[in-house]
């Protein structure tokens, strides 16, 4: 069995309103899983839920939640208490390019909750449930930027490193209990985050891949028992061949430009 059907009957997907999370939700539904769709944008989640239910005759539940709030993940777990969940896709994340010292500390804390504590809590709560049922899977979405410090995105590269190491360790801890864990390390997936970050697509070293392609490659990695996956063969090769200090310099330059683009956008909001 190659798809996700072995992990039913319910999947929980965070960040399902857009990009990679939405593509995971579509794929889960296409494989016959019922879906819990979580993010802040209620309208988009409801519309997606209706579409998936009509197209694939599955059940869905929308849970509108801000996962940067301390009780967000706990509330999501409670909202799934009555469901037989076999798959967790812990994907929601956000960030902001720019110098660390220029960023607002309360905002850094909110992003830390979203990008680390939420994964911690969801992996812990659903990890227990999956181990009890003796079967299931967890996908944690980190970032390629987790493999080294990223100037102009210091906070997110540090937070995503937590997710990478947590998931890689859980891959080994939970496997004997029948729970499969894979960490996805996206680096150039074509989602709204690219524009939200102010990244100029012309500065990307390679053309981004689509979210469904990235999801397909991640599911293949999960099904073949791999702890981590960088979707996109070209990006894997580039990462292998580029010395660490050059990679840091290249990414730092690209993110400095992104931060400048964001600042210009804020200065002229009518053009945003
Ligand atoms: N695309 C890439 O190349 C790339 C690279 C590195 C890492 N990533 C990681 O991949 C994951 C998915 O990102 P994406 O590329 O698919 O970007 P995206 O299209 O912007 O999706 C981000 C998702 O996270 C949700 N989200 C953001 N803040 C949230 C909050 N406070 N509470 C609840 N949900 C929240 C958003 O929904 P709402 O706005 O509706 O809440 C949205 O569904 C993120 O963890 C991101 O860091 C992506």
Quick tags:
272 residues; globular; 7-stranded parallel beta sheet; alpha/beta; Rossmann fold; binds NADP nicotinamide-adenine-dinucleotide phosphate; single chain
CATH superfamily: NAD(P)-binding Rossmann-like Domain
Question: What is CATH's topology name?
Answer: Rossmann fold
Number of strands: 9
The total domain count is 1
The biggest beta sheet is recorded as: 7 strands, parallel
- Rounded to an integer in angstroms, the radius of gyration calculated over CA atoms is 18 Å
User: Structural class of the secondary structure composition?
Assistant: alpha/beta
> What is the CATH class designation?
Alpha Beta
Average pLDDT number: 95
Distance between the termini: 46 Å
Order of helices and strands: EHEHEHEHEHEEHEHEHH
- How much of the sequence is in beta strands? 5-15%
Shape: globular
The residue ranges in which pLDDT falls below 50 over 5 or more consecutive positions are none
CATH architecture: 3-Layer(aba) Sandwich
The total of helices stands at 9
Strand order, main sheet: write it out. Answer: 3-2-1-4-5-6-9
Fraction of residues in H or I helices: 40-55%
Bound molecules: NADP nicotinamide-adenine-dinucleotide phosphate
